[in-house]
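Reply to dn_fold:

You asked what the input looked like. This is it:
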Amino acid sequence: MTALTPFLVLLVVLGVLGTVLYWAFGNDRRGVPDHTGTDFGLLVEVAAVPTVEAADVLASRLRRAGIRVSVVRRGGVHLLLVFPADAPDAKLLVR
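and this is what came back:
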């Protein structure tokens, strides 16, 4: 064995490790998350009301109808968010 053999083995091991890690984690094609507070993922906005009381009234109306709803505050308004499949029914109920 020469003095280069441990060095070559180390390079091969690091190369294999780097290739495996790149294959597992390096080719992520997902978009960068939006941390501005305007992206709510799968949820869509069905109403925007100025007070928390109004948001609670509308949210309870939607929950009684079997629609899952989330209320978030952005700026000075409260947004009611539902899943896209429930959006048409939710818009009818909040009017």
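The chain has a mean pLDDT of 89.
Hope that clears it up.
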